[in-house]
From TrEMBL:
Gene3D superfamilies: 3.30.1150.10. It comes from Bradyrhizobium niftali. This is TonB C-terminal domain-containing protein. The keyword Signal applies. Keywords: Signal. InterPro entries: UCP034077. Residues 1-24 form the signal peptide.
Length: 136
């Protein structure tokens, strides 16, 4: 199973690196809450026909210019997710990050956010039932 998970992450990373997209048009990001708000504007979950709704968390850091620093890392996925669900949501998360970067930081926020990891939760359920966390 770990081998399949590595393939899924690799596929999502390849897709992420291969996408050319424009940053989301939005107001400047001046607070941590603005980072999350900005990312929500870029989030497009897979349609229900492609994957069942799951929750997924990614840890990502930005540099001063608002570009992604290093590689985003999936740290949580709903335990009941199938391999296909995980793949579709990993792709959707990477596409959202691509659409939202470079993050339009103000000068003050650029200095405050640079290099710091942010755990971004993408929830696609109306209410999340209690589940055991499953490492990605």
């Amino acid at each position: 199973m770990a081998r399949c998970g590595n393939k899924l992450l690799l596929a999502a990373a390849v897709l992420f690196l291969g996408i050319s997209g424009a940053a989301a048009e939005d107001a400047q990001v001046n607070t941590i809450q603005d980072i999350f708000r900005h990312l929500r504007t870029c989030w497009k979950p897979p349609p229900p026909a492609k994957a069942r709704p799951i929750d997924i968390t990614v840890v990502v850091s930005f540099n001063r210019t608002g570009n992604i620093l290093g590689h985003p890392r999936i740290t949580y996925e709903s335990a009941e997710a199938s391999d296909n669900d995980r793949l579709q949501y990993r792709i959707a998360v990477m596409e959202a990050l691509q659409r939202c970067t470079p993050m339009p930081f103000t000068d003050a926020m650029a200095g405050a956010a640079a290099g710091r990891p942010f755990a971004i939760q993408f929830r696609n359920r109306k209410t999340s039932p209690p589940t055991q966390e499953r490492p990605a």
